[in-house]
Write a structure and sequence with these properties.
Layout: E1 9-12, E2 19-23, E3 26-27, H1 28-31, H2 37-48, H3 50-59, H4 63-76, H5 79-87
Antiparallel strand pairs: 1-2, 2-3
Helix pairs in contact: 2-3, 3-5, 4-5
Amino acid sequence: MSEHLPIASIGTCIGCNRFGRVDRGVCADCLRPPRGRRWAEMSRRCREDPEFALAVLARITTERGKAMFISFIRTCAHPSIARAVDDA
C-alpha cells in the first residue's frame, strides 16, 4: 500500500464557504472542473477584497453573468463588500 492519499483537513472551503473536508483549503466539489483551485482563490478574493470584486464585476460582459456574480456576492461575501458591489 504505497498509495499516498492527499493530506486533507476539516475546515471552511475558500471557494464556496462550506464547512467540511478540504485539501489545502478547497473542498472536493470546488476542485473538480470547471472550477478548480484558481477559481476557489478568485472566489475567496472576491468575498474578502471589495476592489477585486468590483474589478471582476467590471470585466463580466453579459447581464446574466453580472446578475449571477452579484447574487454570489450578496450570498457569500461580507455585507460591506455586497454594498460596494450593489452601489457599482
